[in-house]
């Protein structure tokens, strides 16, 4: 266990050093639907995209991504971080369930996106093969309740994706989640301290935005 805890992850250098108490009932499962919706909508998946240097990606054994980073297309390509892709899938599945409960149409094609997400999560769980024995509890559905697990630090991963060396300035865009990952508008969120801020500003000053992307409403984060 000690060797496992000290082993750093291949890409972000994370270790199993963060104790987390497992709870079967959190805000994500609240009986208050407003509280529950707020929890899931606040779950930020924008760190999903990182702009990785081509040399670094090659040295770390990553396949060549088909999507170049628009503000440095010669040196960097865009990759999606696995854990955020999984969270994205959870939000899609949860939104489909919620829309069904409310009698609203399901936005995502169940023959593709939802079932794709279910199988993606299946593959992720089997790949991780978490071997933690969870204690059985007398109360139904509370297996492992209160058990302390040692996890990787999720906030450290978010910080790694947000570092200027990798930050893709990426947001999913409300009303347009289906658009290609190649469109520059999805990478229009560089902070002023980003080395790509001026490049981004110059591009949109010269080319403008796609129709429908000019307002803050059009470029706010998408909620599932």
UniProtKB/TrEMBL annotation:
It comes from the Eukaryota. One of its GO terms (biological process) is mycotoxin biosynthetic process. Belongs to the ustYa family. This is Phenylalanine aminomutase (L-beta-phenylalanine forming). The gene is cctP_5.
